[in-house]
Amino acid sequence: MMVVGLTGGIGSGKTTVLKMFQKYGIDCYIADVEAKKLMNSSNEIKKEVIDVFGNQAYIDNQLNRKYIAQIVFQNPDKLDLLNSIVHPKVRKHFRKFVENSTSAYVIYESAILFENNGEKQCDFIITVSAPKNVRIQRVIARDNVSEIEVLHRIKNQLSDEEKISKSDFVIENIDLELTKLQVRIIHQELLKAIDTLKE
Ligand code: ATP
Question: Which numeric CATH code is attached to 3-26+103-198?
Fold first, then answer.
């Protein structure tokens, strides 16, 4: 099964683009959503998180997000540590998802695909890109957060330029109609690549 990684900075439009691929019947795995679920359901993760962050990390068996966020916000090393606990399990879970999928290819979506070395499991990578000021305005409008908060989140991610240099495809997501067109072209290219591999 061909795996396509989809990444892009905060507010670039990954979810928006993903929905366009879903319309073509492509199964999509949203790493962040699955990671959040696994943090509450996997006893293995729970144990390791408590080892690092203490018993307060969980309240009534549910991850204490506020407490964890407070710590990792001030301490990037702890964020790396948290990622190193959660992401191997997410990848394992994703492999099962791939085994069960019947779509032409699958998409693995993650804002921190490269930061977590997730690109190794991908045959192709797509970066969704948009100007920084546009992304900031989108996130402020969507999440009702301050500009400083958005800038802080952007600072923790690789730049668009770095992501693009490591990608096979780039989607410039500014005008939605043009984005749809780019998705259609890339989808066709990917189907072609699958056919070529079969020959
Ligand atoms: P995050 O990394 O924060 O999850 P994301 O990359 O998944 O963000 P989206 O949630 O798809 O980004 O988009 C951010 C916001 O911008 C959403 O409210 C979305 O509806 C809006 N948006 C996305 N693309 C466009 C566009 N081309 N034109 C106008 N609004 C857009």
Answer: 3.40.50.300
The per-residue pLDDT for range 22-76, each reduced to its tens digit, is 999 999 999 999 999 999 999 999 999 999 999 999 999 999 999 999 998 888 8
Number of Cβ atoms within 10 Å of the Cβ of 90: 25
Interatomic CA distance for residues 101 and 47, integer angstroms: 30
Strand partners for 169: 126
CB 139 within 8 A of CB 150: yes
Closest by Cα among 103, 109, 138 to 126: 109
Measured distance CA(193)–CA(191) in Å, rounded: 5
**CA 59 to centroid of ligand 1, rounded, Å:** 32
Complex confidence, ipTM: 0.97
Residue 149, SS3?
Answer: helix
* Ligand 1, atom 22, residue with closest C-alpha: 13
